[in-house]
């Protein structure tokens, strides 16, 4: 549909809904199903507010095409579920509107200059932690082929620009699975809180908090890898390296706009400290490097040795289905006592760009039924099954973005490249010397030296979190 026609289409919706508000409830139900816009909408773009921690609106660039409204209402099922106005906007910070806005009138909130200011401050120790999807997206900004796996160049460039330490968030992805697989086994044994939902996508977590607060107990209590990385950088890492954690500026480099919101959550504060101080996206990393005239391809380097060792399971966290595959590898060994057969290392049924996928995994006499989805329109199908008692799954992975984090709003805009990024992470997993997080020597060491057992009080403090009913936002 052309932009002009789309504006007419939206105009019709607006007019129709204005009638609905005055008219009958039944009519309201019809329009909610067909498009989801509720209320007397006179809005031609999403009413993003200045205090949104993740999304910025640049009014002068806006052509009022309405594409952002459609993305938010149709893909993410947010706009249209409440009475929107210029002073009220509900947002899960997923960034789908950013992806749809060709005019760049919607962007992530930029924080890359804050990172440069911290790097230029000699009293600060600036630590970067880099998410898996960044290494297969950053190359697009430097004319490399789509899905180029540029981990060495990316780390070298971060060092060159002045980060004191460069760590791999994949390490905490491995930790996430250690805790989440154990949590799943406990829920199955206790027949409580089933199905278990993954919790590493903050946009999805906020969606459940707003729209399905009665299902908060189904969310895994495990923090996202970035939230875990933050709590450990300012405790375990600082202690091992002899650094005062108050001098650390921890920067998460991610494909994600929602992480900018996630780090503001008070539930993540430990001993008065926020684990992560600044989140920048892949796009912002490119801006930062270009600002300092650092050429990505001319650099090479390795992650620091502490908090950077990863398994193949941690690498695939960036893909839809990746968290589930990683979790099943460790759940398998937890339940059966041995690693899964080779054919279970890649579960094709839950890979790739289908919005809603399922698989069944037999482990001895037990079987696990799992579902994987992205975008809230697909998550809603599963959530409603849980609500009406027809859900047949034990474990559900949800990501807000198409293809998972490789398709995040902070990645290069060309979403046709998502499949190549997925393939690149899958290839790196296949080539990894170890494909199980429970066999990662550095994971074993952190439990031995710092956390104790999986699920211990220390693990609960640094690796888990809580959630809140946010239905009052509607
Ligand atoms: S998609 Fe961009 S240009 Fe179109 S209405 Fe939204 S903000 Fe404006
Ligand atoms: S970030 Fe997501 S929820 Fe927020 S306005 Fe954009 S599309 Fe809607
Ligand atoms: S899918 Fe990944 S990139 Fe997208 S909102 Fe969730 S965590 Fe962020």
In short:
The protein has helices at 3-22, 25-34, 67-75, 96-100, 112-119, 151-161, 170-190, 202-211, 225-241, 258-262, 282-291, 312-315, 322-336, 376-388, 418-431, 441-451, 457-463, and strands at residues 55-57, 106-108, 125-130, 165-168, 196-197, 248-254, 278-281, 356-363, 366-374, 395-399. The protein is α/β, with parallel strands linked by helices. The chain binds iron/sulfur cluster (3 copies).
Structural write-up:
With 474 residues, the protein is α/β, with parallel strands linked by helices. It folds into three domains: 3-108, Alpha-Beta Plaits (2-Layer Sandwich), CATH 3.30.70; 112-171 and 226-298, Rossmann fold, CATH 3.40.50.1780; 174-222 and 311-473, Fe-only Hydrogenase (Larger Subunit), Chain L, domain 3 (3-Layer(aba) Sandwich). 40% of the residues lie in helices and 11% in strands. The chain has helices at residues 3-22, 25-34, 67-75, 96-100, 112-119, 151-161, 170-190, 202-211, 225-241, 258-262, 282-291, 312-315, 322-336, 376-388, 418-431, 441-451, 457-463, and strands at residues 55-57, 106-108, 125-130, 165-168, 196-197, 248-254, 278-281, 356-363, 366-374, 395-399. The strands form three sheets. The protein has a four-stranded parallel sheet with strand order 4-3-6-7, with helices on both faces. It has a four-stranded mixed sheet with strand order 5-10-9-8, with helices on both faces. A hairpin with a 2-residue loop joins strand 8 and strand 9. Helix 5 packs across helix 11. Mean pLDDT is 91; it is low at 7-36. Bound molecules: iron/sulfur cluster (3 copies). One iron/sulfur cluster binds at residues 94, 201, 203, 255-256, 258, 399-401, 404-405, 408.
């Amino acid at each position: 549909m052309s932009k002009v026609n789309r504006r007419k289409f939206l105009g019709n919706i607006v007019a129709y809904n204005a009638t609905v508000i005055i008219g009958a409830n039944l009519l309201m139900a019809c329009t909610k199903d067909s498009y989801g816009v509720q209320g007397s909408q006179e809005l031609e773009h999403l009413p993003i507010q200045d205090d949104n921690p993740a999304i910025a609106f640049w009014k002068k660039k806006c052509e009022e095409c309405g594409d952002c409204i459609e993305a938010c209402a149709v893909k993410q099922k947010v706009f249209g579920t409440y009475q929107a106005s210029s002073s009220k906007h509900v947002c899960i910070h997923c960034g789908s509107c950013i992806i749809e806005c060709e005019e760049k009138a919607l962007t992530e909130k930029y924080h890359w200059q804050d990172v440069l200011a911290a790097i230029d401050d000699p009293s600060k120790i600036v630590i970067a932690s880099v998410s898996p999807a960044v290494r297969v997206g950053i190359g697009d900004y430097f004319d490399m082929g789509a899905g180029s796996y540029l981990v060495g160049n990316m780390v070298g460039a971060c060092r060159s620009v002045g980060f004191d330490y460069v760590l791999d968030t994949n390490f905490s992805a491995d930790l996430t699975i250690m805790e989440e697989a154990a949590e799943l086994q406990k829920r199955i044994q206790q027949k409580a809180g089933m199905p278990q939902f993954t919790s590493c996508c903050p946009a999805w977590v906020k969606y459940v908090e707003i729209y399905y607060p009665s299902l908060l107990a189904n969310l895994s209590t495990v923090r996202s890898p970035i939230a875990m990385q933050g709590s450990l950088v300012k405790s375990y890492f600082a202690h091992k390296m002899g650094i005062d954690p108050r001098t650390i500026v921890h920067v998460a480099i991610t494909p994600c706009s929602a992480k900018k919101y996630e780090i503001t959550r008070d539930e993540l504060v430990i001993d008065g400290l926020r684990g992560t101080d600044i989140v920048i996206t892949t796009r912002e990393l490119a801006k930062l490097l270009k600002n300092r005239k650092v050429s990505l391809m001319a650099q090479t380097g390795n992650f620091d040795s502490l908090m950077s060792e990863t398994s193949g399971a941690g690498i695939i966290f960036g893909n839809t289905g990746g968290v589930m595959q990683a979790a099943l590898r460790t759940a398998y060994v937890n339940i059966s006592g041995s690693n899964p057969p080779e054919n279970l290392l890649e579960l094709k049924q839950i890979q790739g760009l289908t919005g809603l996928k399922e698989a069944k995994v037999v482990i001895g006499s037990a079987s696990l039924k799992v579902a994987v989805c992205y975008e809230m329109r697909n998550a809603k199908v599963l959530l409603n099954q849980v609500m009406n008692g027809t859900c047949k799954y034990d474990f559900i992975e949800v990501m807000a973005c198409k293809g998972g984090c490789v398709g995040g709003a902070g990645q290069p805009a060309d979403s046709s490249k998502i499949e190549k990024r997925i393939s690149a992470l899958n290839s790196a997993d296949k080539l990894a010397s170890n494909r199980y997080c429970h066999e990662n020597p550095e994971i074993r060491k952190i439990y031995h030296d710092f956390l104790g057992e999986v699920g211990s009080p220390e693990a609960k403090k640094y690796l888990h979190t809580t959630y809140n009913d946010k239905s009052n936002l509607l």
